[in-house]
Specification:
Elements lengths: L1 E2 L4 E4 L3 H12 L4 E4 L16 E3 L15 H12 L5 H11 L3 H6 L4 E2 L6 H4 L2 E4 L2 H16 L2 E3 L4 E7 L2 E7 L2 E4 L2 E4 L8 H8 L13 E2 L8 H9 L4 E2 L5 E7 L20 E3 L14 H4 L3 H6 L6 E5 L15 E3 L2 H8 L3 H14 E2 L12 E2 L18 E13 L2 E2 L6 E4 L2 E8 L17 H21 L10
Parallel strand pairs: 1-10, 2-3, 2-11, 3-7, 11-23, 12-20
Antiparallel strand pairs: 4-6, 5-6, 8-9, 9-10, 13-21, 14-20, 15-16, 16-20, 17-20, 18-19, 22-23
Helix pairs in contact: 1-6, 1-13, 2-3, 3-13, 11-12
Amino acid sequence: MVVLDHDVLVIGGGNAALCAALMAREAGAGVLLLEAAPKEWRGGNSAHTRNLRCMHDAPQDVLVGAYPKQEYWQDLLKVTEGQTNEHLARLIIRASSTCRDWMRRHGVHFQPALSGTLQVARTNAFFMGGGKALVNAYYRSAQRLGVALRYGSPVDRLEIGQGRFVAAHANGERIRAKACVLAAGGFESNRQWLRQAWGQNERGEWPTDNFLIRGTEYNQGVLLRHLLEEHGADRIGDATQAHMVAIDARAPLYGGGICTRIDCVSLGVVVNRNAQRFYDEGEDFWPKRYAIWGRLVAQQPGQMGYSIIDAKALGRFMPPVFPGVLAHTLEELAQKLGLDTAALMRTLNDYNAACRVGHFDHTALDDCHTESLRPAKTHWARPIDTAPFCAYALKPGVTFTYLGLRTDETAAVRFSDAPSQNLFVAGEMMAGNVLGKGYAAGVGMSIGTALGRIAGSNAARAAIRKEPQRASA
């Protein structure tokens, strides 16, 4: 069967895909969106998100203070350690300052800043009802505007001729369109590809066998691999780099989302199976550092870690869905965690003795630190000495992978460095252009929103045979 009555085909069902579909439809194009998941699981990883990182020079509605473009850029530069396309990154930063009114027009509501979240509310706008409410709002708007939606429609291959999109194949159908936007996510749910990318470590382990997937199980990377291997699309990124955080080891294999993340790391210490610390828990504010901990845990024996706090930390962090392991003594805690008691006591005694407690302030880079301890704890270092003691077992939780398709400010897919005239990419499939490594909270939604809107606009222009518009950085 050949479908001929759509100008723009959007492949994917999350934030970037929906932004593309809405922009293309607003530009007057007929749009068909194919979502691989069934309707009840629509939205991809975006359904598990909470916020969008936004540049602003002064307080704006739900954002407090100021978060100027240079600070945003420096934050991104720091977490990626320079592995980012500055031109594209600055474009996304600029776009983050102006997208909220457009989002509101499509039914997205934002949460006013709450007490206790002011540090994050300076940099991030939170969605009322979270990511699920956001994607539901976009789907309602898409239906109202006449975007055709098809669920349970995974695309397994594309027809491309001389860098131009011709047709897509889904559920045995051949679907043609004048332009196409790819926004089908990374390959984090493809266990075989993860194994292939990471290989075995020096201990003979396959680390990825112990990875949990925070989001959708439908991100198998089928189209990404197809574009790279069958059509020779230009690639960007390292297959082992990903948005990967430390989550509760009891989380499900797929779909655990935000509620399984462990956010008390900076308030205590983290040890591995050998009861040894392995990184500075207080290096920087948690929204800038939380996404390094999945990779850190992945490098430990058995891909396990244990976040340990005491009574002084309780109530100071967002509680996860599972309760922590409680104990009246540290020796009892070690036994409950299955750790060597003597080894854990040595680690904690050394840490406690090294703490130099000044003025504790978890909303600032305070002066509570350790001395003569490796690894050091740079901020928020206080002895773990007050019962009850609490711990969470950790595993790596993958959000999305960074290997993707190289693009530019037009969002065009590139073949031998030549941009396609009618095939565009947005979201996680191109995030590696901006995120070579590392992550800062809300950046993924900034990338998806900015490039999704650009891709949708340019796909509509291609469908009516206009030159793609080049957004300015």
